[in-house]
Structure formats: C-alpha cells, structure tokens
C-alpha cells in the first residue's frame, strides 16, 4: 500500500478507532494528538497488524507545531496520501453560559485548527497533484440546534469550507471530502447528559468511515437511519423546522 494516512485526534474515540482500522487494512498511519502517552498505547495496540501506526504528537491550535508535524511525517515515513482531519471538541453552551470566548475557542479548535492542518498540507499535495483530505464535521452542522450554537456553528463552517475546497481542489488532483457522524460512543459523548438517538459503537463507525474515505465520495455519514433523518430535517422550511425542534427538545427535557 503506498502513501501515508495522517489522522489528527488519533489518541481517542473516532480518530483512534480509524487509525486502528486503517492499520488493520495494511495502511501506514501517522497519528497526531496532544497526549503522547495515549498515542504510544495506540502504537502498541496496532503492532501485529498488516500496517502500522507511528506517533507524531502535536496540537492543532499551534500553527508552527503542526507545520513541523507535517514536515516530520513526510521526512520520516513518506508522502501523506490521505489526511483525516478529525481532532476537535464539543463544549455545550446554553444562552445562560453563552460567552464570546466560548464561541472563539470552539471556532479556534474546530475550524481554524483544521485550517492550520491544511496550511502545510495543501501546497505539498498541490505540488504532487495528488492526495485526499477528509475533514470530520458533524450532522450538528446541518442546522442550528439548542445548546449547540458554538459547536454547531463551527461544524457548519467546516461543511461550507469543505464544499468550497471540493470543487476548487479537483483540478489540482486532490479529493476533498467530509465526514458527518451522528452520535458515536466515544469519551466525548460519554460526557453528554441527554439521550443520543441511534448511538453507534465506535468500531462500527470507524469501519464505515474508512470505507467512505477510501471510496472517494464527498460526504461520508453514519449511522444511516439517523443521518438520513437529519438530511431530511435539513430541507424543512423554518415554519416546520422550529416547531419540530421545540417538540423534540421539550420531550427530551421532560
Ligand atoms: N462522537 C460523536 O458522536 C461525534 C459526532 C459528530 C462529530 N464528531 C467529531 O468527531 C471528532 C472526534 O470526536 P470524538 O467523539 O472521537 O472525540 P474524543 O474522543 O474526545 O476525541 C477527540 C480527539 O481530538 C484530539 N484533540 C482535541 N483537541 C486537540 C488539539 N488542540 N490538538 C490536537 N488534537 C486535539 C484529542 O486528543 P488530545 O486530547 O490527546 O489532544 C482526541 O484524540 C471531533 O471533531 C468531533 O466533533 C463526533
């Protein structure tokens, strides 16, 4: 198998499971996250697979650090063929806890953090006229949802960015795609205090994600039933959308 798969947010949850799934399928994976100890455990767990995982710790809020990570991966392992920009986070924010700083921090992590990964990566892939990049957004980016103003807005921005890049990068030989998960059981969702419909086990999500990334469609979404419902809800006019959201969130809180 030629080319390296770079995964950010590989120390936990979806990114970690995707790294193991790529390694199982024979790919060489470069794994990035801040927690070097968790990455070392991942490297050990992947040993014995057809492919392997190498740790390249880094913080996506540090532009210079991430540029060094990309350079180190290409120097040590080889050219990055596939990038899965998955690192991100969710902080619930209500109108009572609203602050501009919460919005800024979420945008800085999810939107600008992904852009910091793209900055050193795009020129390299454009020079080679080859590569594939998938950003992990969320169905929460489809429409505005209560308690999700910061996170949802950041994921909506990522969806919009991916749509723009998809068309623009095609003539450069680069496939730019999007992963939009519904609820997947990870340390992040373990903290949620609300019911999560169609919650998907992380290993099943990773299999679906890797199939999608290798299949080269634009959008990879899962689980099927929940994301299909969310795609339909996305098309509703406001006159139907807001009463539906009120009904669902009222029945959740009662
Ligand atoms: N789980 C879901 O239901 C769900 C649904 C839709 C979308 N998503 C998206 O899927 C992605 C993964 O979520 P998850 O549920 O797997 O969460 P998770 O288990 O909390 O994993 C998040 C990953 O991001 C990394 N990360 C966070 N901040 C970082 C930073 N500044 N620099 C580098 N890495 C950083 C974390 O590693 P370190 O802490 O070691 O840095 C960790 O590896 C996120 O973008 C999330 O928004 C998840």
What does this structure look like?
This protein is an alpha/beta fold and 254 residues long. The chain has a single domain, classed as Rossmann fold (3-Layer(aba) Sandwich), CATH 3.40.50. Helices cover 52% and strands 15% of the residues. It is built from nine helices and seven strands. The protein has helices at 13-24, 36-46, 63-76, 100-128, 149-169, 187-190, 202-215, 224-234, 238-253, and strands at residues 4-8, 28-32, 52-55, 80-85, 131-136, 174-181, 219-222. It has a seven-stranded parallel sheet, with helices on both faces. Helix 4 (100-128) runs parallel beside helix 5 (149-169). The longest helix is centred in the middle third of the chain and has 29 residues, at 100-128. The protein starts with a strand and ends with a helix. 38% of the residues are buried. It binds NADP nicotinamide-adenine-dinucleotide phosphate. NADP nicotinamide-adenine-dinucleotide phosphate binds at residues 8-15, 33-35, 38, 59-61, 86-90, 109, 136, 138, 181, 183-184, 186-189.
């Amino acid at each position: 198998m030629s080319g390296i798969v770079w995964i950010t947010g590989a120390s936990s949850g979806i990114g970690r499971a995707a790294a193991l799934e790529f390694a199982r399928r024979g790919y060489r994976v470069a794994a990035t996250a801040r927690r070097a100890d968790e990455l070392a455990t991942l490297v050990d767990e992947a040993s014995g697979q057809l492919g392997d995982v190498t740790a390249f710790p880094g913080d996506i809020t540090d532009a210079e650090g991430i540029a060094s990570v990309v350079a180190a991966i290409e120097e040590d392992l080889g050219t990055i063929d596939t990038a899965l920009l998955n690192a991100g986070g969710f902080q619930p924010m209500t109108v009572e806890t609203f602050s501009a700083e919460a919005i800024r921090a979420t945008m800085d992590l999810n939107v600008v953090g992904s852009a910091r990964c793209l900055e050193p990566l795009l020129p390299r892939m454009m020079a080679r006229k080859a590569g594939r990049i998938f950003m992990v957004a969320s169905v929460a980016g489809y429409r505005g949802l209560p308690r999700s103003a910061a996170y949802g807005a950041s994921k909506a921005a990522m969806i919009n960015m991916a749509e723009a890049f998809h068309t623009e990068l095609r003539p450069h030989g680069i496939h730019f795609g999007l992963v939009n998960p519904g609820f997947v059981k990870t340390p992040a969702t373990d903290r949620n205090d609300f019911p999560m419909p169609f919650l998907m086990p992380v290993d099943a999500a990773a299999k679906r994600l890797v199939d999608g990334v290798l299949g080269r469609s634009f959008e990879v979404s899962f689980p099927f039933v929940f994301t299909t419902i969310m795609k339909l809800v996305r098309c509703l006019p406001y006159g139907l959308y807001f009463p539906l959201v009120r009904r669902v969130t009222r029945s959740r809180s009662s």
